Amino acid sequence: MIRFLLRRTIHAVLLIFVTFTATFFIIHLAPGDPLTRYYSPDIDPVAMNTIRRQLGIDDPLPIQFAKTLRSYARGDFGLSLSSHRPVSRIIWEAIPRTIQLTGIALVLQILLGLALGMLSASRRRGVTDKVLAPVFLLFYSLPSFYLAYVLIAVFALKLQWLPAASMSTLDLHGAGPLAAMADRLWHLALPVSVLALGSTAAFARYARGSLLDAAGQEFVRTARAKGLAERTVMWRHVFKNALPPILTVVGLSIPVLLGGAVVVEKIFAWPGMGSLLVDSIYARDYPVVLAVNLIAAVMVIVGNLLADVSYLWADPRIKTPASVKDGAR
């Protein structure tokens, strides 16, 4: 196990470096100039050249890349070209907001997806299963931006039950912690619903298939033949053996939720990493774009690594390549 974790960690570090390198050269080779907003007939060209030289924009790309690597190795992400603030401070302000959004959506996806998947699997070919199947397909097929506008039109504009944008009420200053938490959850309702509905439908369909596959095994039929209650069979035998592939899907859901958060945060004016990335791309703020992509890549790779480890933990029968070699010896 230790050898497996070490090998996967090395692969993860290499993948992060490749992602960082590709992102750096792609954003720098894209057309446009990050200092375009400052161009004006009233600005002295000498002053503009001095700013470009101070920011290192005129340096050759290999030199810029080497300087960026050195600063990242020191934990320095540089200064934002648009806000002139440390990029690390901007990132750490946005990360908790995105984690709130995607974390709640992930928890809802797991809980509701498992519950609906087990319900559909236990009622296979029944009325419940026939009703849930097209519902899963509908929400899985809907684009997140379309679902967001539908929910805004119904619950924010028509019924006026939920806010359409922002992360807090403007006149909430001085409210207690419980009131602030309730207000935050109130503003999270619509964006979390948009993120969770599609992923929950996909997760429920996959959980249903995995549960039905485990339910068809010989040991399950033997357990039923012994007279065990259906609930006991489902939890002790079916669910336990269907869990490993489900855990893999949970790990793979992290990049899906992060990618969906880019659209959802922009639509609902949620000031997280997704909104920050879109705004920085439009502003050609290279340091912020590079840092956000790096953080997102690290989160995705760490999520996949945790999924692999949980897969091995949930099913001890699975052996790593190193354990297979040791056993062969």
SSE blueprint and pairings:
Blueprint: H1 2-29, H2 45-55, H3 61-73, H4 87-122, H5 127-141, H6 144-158, H7 177-215, H8 218-225, H9 230-267, H10 273-283, H11 286-314, H12 321-328
Helix pairs in contact: 1-11, 4-5, 4-7, 4-9, 4-11, 5-7, 6-7, 6-9, 7-9, 8-9, 9-10, 9-11, 10-11
Features:
MetI-like fold; mainly alpha; 0% strand; 329 residues; 12 helices; disordered C terminus
> Residue ranges: pLDDT <50 for 5 or more in a row?
321-329
Tell me the major beta sheet.
Answer: none
Query: By helix and strand content, what is the structural category?
Result: mainly alpha
Provide the CATH architecture. Answer: Orthogonal Bundle
CATH fold label: MetI-like fold
Number of E-type strands: 0
In sequence order, what are the helices and strands, one letter per element? HHHHHHHHHHHH
What this model shows, in words?
Helix 6 packs across helix 7, helix 7 (177-215) crosses helix 9 (230-267) and helix 9 (230-267) runs parallel beside helix 10 (273-283). The chain has one domain (2-328): MetI-like (MetI-like fold, Orthogonal Bundle). Mean pLDDT is 82; it is low at 321-329. It is an all-alpha fold and 329 residues long. The protein is built from twelve helices and no strands.
Describe the structure in brief.
The chain has 329 residues and is an all-alpha fold. It has helices spanning 2-29, 45-55, 61-73, 87-122, 127-141, 144-158, 177-215, 218-225, 230-267, 273-283, 286-314, 321-328.
